[in-house]
Fold this sequence. Notes:
The complex is a heterodimer.
Chain A: H1 3-28, H2 34-41, H3 48-67, H4 89-105, H5 109-118, H6 123-149
Helix pairs in contact in A: 1-5, 5-6
Chain B: H1 4-13, H2 21-41, H3 49-58, H4 67-94, H5 105-121, H6 128-135, H7 139-161
Amino acid sequence: MTDADRRRSGVVAVVFLGGLAFGFGLAVSGMARPEVVLDFLQFEDFGLLFVMGGAAAVTGLAFFVATSGLDGAPLTGREYTRRIKAFDRNVVVGGAVFGVGWGLSGVCPGAAYASLGVGNLPVLWAIAGMFLGAYGQGVVRSRLAAATAR
Amino acid sequence: MGTLTPLLASALEAPFPRGVLPYLLGGLLVGLGATIIYLSTGIIAGASTFLESTLSYVSNVDRFHRDTYVRSRGWRVAFTLGIVAGAAVWGLVLDPGPWTTDVQWWRLLGGGVLVGVGTRLGKGCTSGHGVCGVGSLSTTSLVNVATFMAFAIGTAQLIQALGVSP
Lengths: 150, 166
């Protein structure tokens, strides 16, 4: 095993561990259950605000501490950055499409994987749908890019 | 104190019929998971890019073979398997199930397709924008979250008004 291999498996191990806490948290919070998400969207249970708020507060603190004083990440040497993506029309259009889908199903990607872990097999419909949707938009964008390049 | 506690409890009961603690605890754990990954690797974890990066294993479409997807697809699979395993620990070990949703298949499938399109077009989902983006105080993410919240609430209320349940 070379040093690079060892580093790579360290990254995979720690990402799996982080995913473990992440998925456990989604299950504890009830987000793995579409019914709980739909109850929030129908104003019957506002608990989801604490899930997103609590999670964002923890990551926000980590982003703040790391970007304002720590050197690169120990396992990769990567520089610590915040999550800032460029703004364009797609951010709003995509958000609207995502919102309609979330409101229809009560399912988003992370929660869907967690739901599968809880043993909720019907969520495979939603996961299949997500792959179909992601595939469709990839095909369309590839064609658009090819058409513009021509 | 003696009269205040039940008063507070009943004031909290209407907006939070399942209580607040599981939501807050779960949210902190979700944040902790993202933080473990971030502090050790510098990676900012989102759950939806997994869709595109995983499609690169099976599809020749150009879009999925962008460098960023191919380079990250390995750890994204690990992240997703971690999420499944973490939820399984809770659902199948600590909170004996199994449990399945009553939401109808066409809502799951149709909603899933729109989620797949929307999250990829909009550059993120409830974890990327909603947790990490909001935690970064990114204007792009705040706009995306406000947009998807408004549309999700509108859709869910409309479906309910049409009498579709669950």
